[in-house]
Design brief:
The complex is a heterodimer. Chain A is α+β, with helices and mostly antiparallel strands. Chain A has a domain at 28-33 and 66-179: Heat Shock Protein 90 (2-Layer Sandwich), CATH 3.30.565. Chain A contains three helices and seven strands. Chain A is globular, with a radius of gyration of 16 Å. The relative contact order of chain A is 0.26. Chain B is an alpha/beta fold. A six-stranded mixed beta sheet of chain B has the order 1-2-3-4-5-6. Classes of the chains: A alpha+beta, B alpha/beta.
């Protein structure tokens, strides 16, 4: 992304930056547009806490990607529909996964990994690469359109029901959750 | 009816096809760029270069028909925002036409659709 100078840069995957050897986790929920009005305070994050995310479901589908984002989008869409996500939400998930995977292409040194699993409650997409996000609040502030950059992770936070991130010097894991529509009560 | 005066080129870059046509509506010339396929970080540089070439021609109006564009990520959006800013500076206008669901979503989420006018048809965009 040459020419893009975002002051708060969501493009914060910086492989090789080890000046700050920190690791952190951030969990945000209900950041969709409908929930925005309910936000009363700044989003929470816990820099310095390095508990990794719980392991993915054992039956998770696993893919490795380099630059083939269109293939990744097709896979995510297929699983999202199969899991029972409404089409609009499936498109949202595709957008979110694509934005995170785009950051791998921009900033990580090696291939990224995508895992997808779902149960009756939710579908989860986990993206891992060797990049480092140095800002625990990355993507939680809306960049101005003049910033000409930094919208990727912000969009991810807007469309997903829950976003978990863990980043340290070994890499970054971002987990995107979408709730599945509940079955009608009987 | 807009008069198609010349097809300048039709370039296919990986997942993305970009065609540019010089047209006229009620005597006013405009440039129509049709983008089809999927626009993401892997082809943004190409998209940006093609759009920059059109901006350099200093069109009074540049219309981007997105009806064939299945997907657009934030990299491609930034390319559009850059075009909008450049055109604005040189007294031109950018208009977008017929974004599909996924493309309309990112335009709406980022509020780019408040900055760049979006129309249902090329004819509508051309008549301003």
């Amino acid at each position: 992304m040459t020419g893009d100078t975002s002051p708060i840069a969501a493009d914060l995957f910086c492989p090789g930056v080890s000046l700050l050897l920190m690791s952190w986790d951030a969990k945000t929920t209900q950041r969709g547009p409908a929930a925005q009005e309910a936000l009363t305070g700044p989003p929470s994050a816990q820099p310095g806490i390095s508990a990794p995310l719980p392991p993915p479901a054992p039956d998770a589908m696993s893919y490795t990607y380099t630059t083939d984002l269109a293939a990744i989008r097709a896979v995510v869409y297929r699983y999202a529909i199969q899991a029972g996500l409404a089409e609009q939400r499936a498109i949202d998930l595709v957008l979110a996964v694509s934005e995170v995977a785009a950051n791998t292409i921009r900033h990580a040194k090696s291939a990224g990994s995508l895992k997808i699993w779902y149960d009756s409650e939710e579908i989860v997409c986990q993206i891992e690469d060797d990049g480092l996000i140095s800002d625990p609040l990355a993507g939680q502030r809306q960049p101005s359109l003049d910033a000409m950059g930094g919208h990727g992770l912000w969009i991810v936070h807007q469309v997903c029901d829950q976003v978990d991130m863990h980043s340290d010097e070994t890499g970054t894991t971002i987990r995107l959750h979408m709730k599945l529509p509940g079955r009608p009560a009987r | 009816m807009p008069l198609e005066t010349a097809l300048w080129y039709n370039k296919c870059v990986d997942l993305l096809t970009v065609s540019v046509t010089a047209r006229e509506s009620a005597g006013e010339p405009y440039t129509l760029v049709e983008i089809a396929g999927e626009a993401d970080v892997t082809n943004t540089d190409d998209l940006r270069r093609l759009l920059d070439e059109e901006v350099a021609q200093q069109p009074r109006m540049l219309i981007i028909d997105m009806s064939g564009l299945r997907f657009m990520d934030s990299s491609a959006l930034h390319a559009l925002l850059r075009v909008n800013r450049s055109l604005d500076r040189q007294g031109g206008v950018l208009a977008l036409v017929s974004p599909q669901t996924a493309v309309a979503k990112i335009l709406r989420l980022t509020t780019a659709d408040r900055l760049i006018p979006v129309f249902d048809s090329v004819a509508e965009a051309a008549s301003g």
